[in-house]
Design a protein that fits this description.
Strand content: 15-25%
Strand order of the largest sheet: 1-2-5-4-3
Helix content: 25-40%
Number of helices: 11
Radius of gyration: 21 Å
Distance between the termini: 57 Å
């Protein structure tokens, strides 16, 4: 008696699944960003699915603050700005399983394009309720020159103006590693993914040594502890280019050059091993490019992802 012929696998159900955008988004929403990127690297088809998913994630964030979700990406592109804080951290984590949600939107921008950004936000119906010159308050050490708070109904946007020519300088001086992340028009960047994606973080001790209120710092620490982060004594960088999936940049310098600078170097402060009294200051150094090109001329449309 002849053996039965082996039947070929039926891929119709799989094809139907991946042709359904809603199901694909539902699946990827259960993954953190590194897993999403790895899935996009498995095939050209999957890379297209991941690009669409990332566009959807950012449009969802934008839709919480603007009539059209794509307005946020347009603002970041036009004004050479980035989103950081809780919103950037939330995008790194799985949608499902992350019980908390950001309360506002933090946009970081360099001085030359700050007025452009503010004008666009006013055009979108926002009103400025606070304007603080942090240089006058002695906060120059933390690379922030000015803070604007804008509201529109229940929506809040904080615009943080860098004191350097690079919008991301203040982000590298945050109170802890968990929030040292940012999203530009075409890049998602995480400074310390090994810790952050495991809900671990380290403090930036400089806030306790120089100029910052201990109560304010501990309030921020408590907030992120309430969001499931544990602070440890121990940190690599991750960047996803949303135009290059499944490819990734070979160096984070490529990311920094998008901001019109050659490089950004930073170290966190702390007490050297074996010493009890000496404290090394943290530092952020921006290696500037001499040309006057705005980084917006270097951006394409949001289509790719870097880790």
């Amino acid at each position: 008696m002849d053996a039965p012929e082996a039947s070929l696998p039926d891929f119709s159900a799989c094809t139907k699944f991946f042709n359904c955008t809603e199901l694909v988004h539902h699946m990827l929403s259960s993954c953190d960003l590194p897993d999403v990127q790895q899935f996009g690297a498995t095939s050209r088809w999957n890379s297209q699915l991941v690009r669409g998913y990332l566009q959807w994630r950012l449009a969802t964030v934008g839709g919480q603050y603007f009539t059209e979700g794509k307005t946020l990406v347009d603002l970041l592109h036009t004004c050479d700005a980035v989103v950081s804080g809780s919103t950037a951290l939330h995008v790194l984590l799985p949608v499902y399983g992350t019980a908390w949600a950001p309360g506002d939107l933090d946009i970081y921008v360099a001085p030359p394009t700050s007025q452009c950004l503010l004008q666009k936000l006013l055009f979108e119906g926002y009103t400025t309720v606070k304007d603080v010159d942090l240089n006058e308050k002695g906060y120059t050490y933390f690379k922030i020159a000015r803070l604007f708070v804008l509201t529109k109904g229940h929506r809040h946007i904080d615009v943080i103006v860098s004191s350097t020519s690079c919008a991301i300088s203040p982000i590298l001086q945050f109170h802890s590693m968990a929030v040292m992340n940012f999203i530009s028009a075409d890049t998602i960047f995480c400074c310390y993914p090994t810790l952050t994606l495991r809900h671990l973080s380290m403090m930036n001790a400089a806030f306790l040594y120089f100029g910052a209120s201990t109560g304010t710092v501990m309030e921020a620490v408590t907030k992120y502890q309430g969001r499931g982060f544990r602070f440890v004594k121990y940190g690599e960088m991750m960047w996803i280019n949303m135009h290059g999936i499944p490819e990734a940049s070979h160096s984070c310098v490529d990311v920094f050059r998008q901001f019109g600078v050659l490089d950004v170097q930073w170290t966190l402060g702390g007490i050297p091993c074996g010493l009890e009294c000496a404290f090394c200051r943290p530092r952020v150094e921006v290696v500037e490019e001499e040309s006057n090109l705005l980084m917006g001329t270097m951006f394409g449309e949001i289509d790719d992802l870097f880790i």
